[in-house]
Amino acid sequence: MPLLDGKVAIVTGGGNGLGRCHALALAAAGARVVVNDLGGSVLGTGAGDAADAVAEEIRERGGQAVANRASVADWDGAGSIVEQAVRTFGGLDIVVNNAGINRPSSVITMTEQDFDLEIGVHLKGTAAVSHHAARLWAERRPEAGRAIVNTTSPVGMHPMPDGGPYGAAKAGIAALTQVHAQELASLGVRVNAIAPAARTRMVMASPSVDQLMPRSAGFDRHAPEHVSPLVVYLASALCGFTGRVFGVEGPDVALYTPWSVERVVTAASGWSAEALATALADAPPQSAIRAFYPGGCIATVSPPNRTLKTLAATAKLG
Ligand SMILES: NC(=O)c1ccc[n+]([C@@H]2O[C@H](COP(=O)([O-])OP(=O)(O)OC[C@H]3O[C@@H](n4cnc5c(N)ncnc54)[C@H](O)[C@@H]3O)[C@@H](O)[C@H]2O)c1
User: Domain range holding 58?
Assistant: First the structure.
């Protein structure tokens, strides 16, 4: 029997890139799929509607799928995706929160519109669809085998310059993943997140990132379809994890450790600023971390050397 036989899944932003691959992979594993995406042309074809096209592709392959064109950033629109799953397929088992956009900007250059858009699509969109799914599951009996798969980013786990609104939204999604895992366990829902790296429309629009993902002969490390088996695994009963983030790039899957405490200093009668300066004097100004960026794991430090050097140079100017 296929792994997800009889399950009903939602994939947001399922009309292009990673979401399209996830929708096709979930359907191939036996799930009936609501393919959500904003109305718009299909990448490369110049015509048609992306969600409709992917739903049609699934049906042509013998699966079951319907299209939904709501924006996940709209609270009621997010609700309509869940309603459509229930109306069309009688229930809901799996939510893949994948919809996304990327407008790189620094704290100096960003606009209010950029910030609202990033937070709206990623953070509010993830929260909204998960909320409506959770309400449905709470109204029904607890049932094993429910899953939410969120989409964070390497930039959400290790934020970098010009990735403020995007990185903050993606870090927020990692936080929601942990919170929702705790809140929904009693309803039988596992909640995990992926931090993918793959060559998609979003990446190709950003030349510096696109350079990190060259096309390779043979197994193409950055082809988006290599990310989807992880999503199918996280959506299935094979997965025993909840509240975790998995990096994924081609053949490599990385399991993240959440933020963890590096050192504790204690003052039984409370701290002064001077006493804190003394207590922390020998603590290194940087934390050693292992980051998972395109190309695999790299050892690095936080904050980066260049940030500390720039601060030191600025202090000398003052
Ligand atoms: N490609 C990568 O390397 C990479 C890296 C890290 C994270 N991600 C994340 O993966 C997810 C998929 O991105 P992708 O690379 O496939 O990009 P993509 O641009 O190919 O696909 C994103 C899809 O989301 C849809 N979308 C945008 N706003 C929406 C909204 N309000 N409601 C519904 N759908 C909406 C778009 O129309 C598009 O079809 C995103 O969340 C992205 O941030 C991608």
Answer: 8-255
